[in-house]
Design goal:
Length: 69
């Protein structure tokens, strides 16, 4: 079984950090709303780690506020 540990959307490799974070936030929010990511905080942390993106506490809190809005 293979796993996806990096973005595969066209152009994702060309996106800057703000766009990458926004894309991950959109994905996690959609998954959370659909019920496939009931623990949105853990899901976001995992996806950020998979993409080698580090957010400070304030940035992470802003991302979570968007996801759970």
């Amino acid at each position: 079984m293979s796993t996806q540990n990096h973005p595969i959307e066209p152009g994702s490799a060309d996106a800057g950090l703000p766009e990458q974070v926004a894309g991950l936030v959109r994905q996690v929010r959609a998954d959370h709303l659909l019920g496939s990511a009931p623990d949105a905080e853990t899901t976001l942390r995992d996806r950020l780690a998979d993409a080698s993106i580090a957010l400070d506490d304030d940035e992470f809190a802003r991302a979570m506020a968007i996801i759970t809005a």
